[in-house]
Amino acid sequence: MYKKLLSAIVLFVLVLSQYACQRKSSEAVVTSAESKQAKALLQGIWIDAETEEVAFRAKGDTIYYPDSTSLPAYFKIVNDSLVLGKSSYPIVKQAAHLFWFRNQAGDLVKLEKSDNPNDALDFRHEQPRALEMVSELQKTDSVVFYGGERYHWYIAINPTRYRVMKTSYTDDGVGVENVYFDNIIHISVYKGAQKLYSSDFKKQMYADEIPAEFLDQAILGNMQFDSVDERGFHFNTTLCIPDGASCYLVSTDIGFNGQVSKKLLEY
Fold first, then answer.
1. Quick one: residue 55, left, alpha or beta (phi over 0 = left, psi -120 to 50 = alpha)?
2. Higher model confidence: residue 68 or residue 52?
3. What is the pLDDT of residues 39-65, one digit of tens each?
4. Could you give the CA distance from residue 62 to residue 239 in angstroms, rounded to a whole number?
5. CA separation (Å) from 106 to 58, 65, 83, 184?
6. For residues 119 and 113, is the Cβ–Cβ distance under 8 A?
7. To the nearest 5 percent, what fractions of the chain are helix, strand and coil?
8. Contact indicator for 179, 163 with CB cutoff of 8 Å
């Protein structure tokens, strides 16, 4: 019995050692697969061969974009593919002043290395500039009458430093991360001098009405008074993907007792 147990232990140790060696060997292959020579060739500013528009700048192990809202991306070249984040783009041809690859849709993108010093001006920002998605009207208020009573509501849209990341694609079909600033919206409702409700709204408060995947990339954009009835005050709230047509419209309802409820109106 003891000999069988000892044999089993020895066999387990041998198998574990073999697995560890194979893993180390595999990791070594992955590491060595990155082409330092290809990365060196990619250094510089690259323009579209047809439009002559600046596509990106490769500096060290980072790619920068002329769009000031696009985040720089770490890159490497592995197995004849340009790897950016989780995306990989097959390289068709590469030379000192030529770089051809296939984009996300499989289209052939032909780039040439720029020899125009003025193209460097497109990268003066280096750090991405986040966009603030605020309504044109940041503060609004009005007086409404219901049931013979006078009510005053007030809305303020406040820009924040909360970042919202959105994936978009360049003209060459390369995925980039854009950064935006979210908003907080404050609502107050008064009956004469009596405060019925006063609080801030963040986009996370609409998690029950909007899918999480959409909400992660959305901006709390605007809130407008809609109506008042026996159930209270109704405000239309919009949450949108920046620079896109995708929005959710949610009714934010504030009762006369100060209780808040929400209802999805449309998408």
1. alpha
2. 52
3. 999 999 999 998 889 999 999 999 998
4. 33
5. 22, 21, 15, 40
6. no
7. 20, 50, 30
8. yes
Do residues 99 and 46 touch, judged by C-beta distance below 8 A? Answer: yes
CA–CA distance from 63 to each of 44, 56, 124, 154 (Å)?
Answer: 10, 7, 14, 45
| Of 86, 80, 88, 89, the residue nearest 109 (C-alpha) | 89
In whole angstroms, give the CA distance from residue 99 to residue 117: 19
Distance CA(224)–CA(183), nearest Å, equals 15
**Gyration radius of the chain's alpha carbons:** 28
CB 72 within 8 A of CB 128: yes
Q: Tell me the residue length of the chain.
A: 267
pLDDT tier at 27, thresholds 50, 70, 90: very low
What gap in Å lies between CA 53 and CA 68, rounded to an integer?
15
* Locus of tokens 């790897």: 83
Structure token digits, residue 92: 């068709």
CA-based angle 202:135:146, to the nearest 5?
A: 75
At which residue do the structure tokens 């107050």 appear? 188
Strands 247-254 and 260-266: antiparallel
Number of H helices, E strands in the chain: 3, 17
Is the CB of residue 252 less than 8 Å from the CB of residue 203? no
Please say whether the beta carbons of 241 and 168 come within 8 A: no
Which one, of 102, 83, 77, lies nearest residue 92 by Cα?
102
Work out the burial of residue 61: count CB atoms within 10 Å of its CB; fewer than 13 is exposed, 13-18 middle, 19 or more buried. exposed
